[in-house]
Prior knowledge:
23% of the residues are buried. By secondary structure, the chain is α+β, with helices and mostly antiparallel strands. It has one domain: Nuclear Transport Factor 2, Chain: A (Roll), CATH 3.10.450.50. Strands 1-2-3-4 form a 4-stranded antiparallel β-sheet. The chain has helices at residues 2-15, 32-45, 49-54, 58-64, 67-77, 79-82, and strands at residues 84-95, 98-107, 112-122, 125-134.
Amino acid sequence: MKQILLLLAIGLALWVKPVSAQAPAPTLSGAAHQAVISAQVEAFQADDFVRAFSYASPTIRDLFRTPENFAAMVKRGYPMVWRTHDLHYLEARSIAGALWQKVLVTDAKGERFLLDYRMIRIGGRWRIDAVQMLTLPDVAA
């Protein structure tokens, strides 16, 4: 179990890598990057991990090497993404030249999670380069 947690921690550390100060700021207009997130979630819903893996950046693909390894990580570390009941796109913003998209996810049990997707453009296409779990703020009714 400790080895799995260590691998997840290393994987997350590698996902959130520094960005060059010379990187151009991504455009926040349009929903092309959101379509990639949605497509990956749809692939997870269908247990099509080959297709889900195709939306990952080369860095992520190099880290996990196979769709099966990627699937195992998602099932263990991000079950709410693997079995999403609902998702809503919140703010997208540019941070240090990278595009970050906040997403509110509700899992099959009705529990809500706030995720932050780091998106990069490769060959004119958006790819998912990292996913961070954020603390969901308490909201009084």
